[in-house]
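G., the chain you wanted modeled:
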Amino acid sequence: MLVLGIDPGLAMTGFGLVEETDRKLVLKGVGCIRTPATLPVAERLQIIFSELTAVLEGQRIAAAAVEQLFFNTNVTTAMAVAQARGVILLTLAHQSIPTAEYTPLQVKQALTGFGRADKGQIQRMVQSMLGLKDVIRPDDAADAVAIALCHLQSYRFSQAIGKGAKG
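Predicted structure as tokens:
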């Protein structure tokens, strides 16, 4: 099962492709879609659409997992991320890829069992689960891989209890 994890953002959208076969996890691809702050928002959203479409091309993605919007105090940042998420969700829907959404708390709990785990703990768990030599950089790409792993955990759990998660 190949899962695409996405950490949405207007400036940088992280993505990670993780495949599970016979209970073995393999990182198949990871990266970031970057958009220049000097461009108008509409052009930046077009870049996200185009580059995400290119990532999806030729892949047999069973499911996607996207981080839900976490709103803290910066309304401007939240709006920009919401716009990027909208483009991402539409791109995935256009490709008929089943999509799940997870909060940062759900991702942290799925990977570490602790909802207040810090970024370093999450990155080390991702590194350990995938048997990687180094921690994935930048953070947005590492977060996307963590989101994909969260979905695989959730999918396995729902299969075990017989409910069948998306993907």
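The chain is about 45% helix and 20% strand.

Shout if anything looks off.
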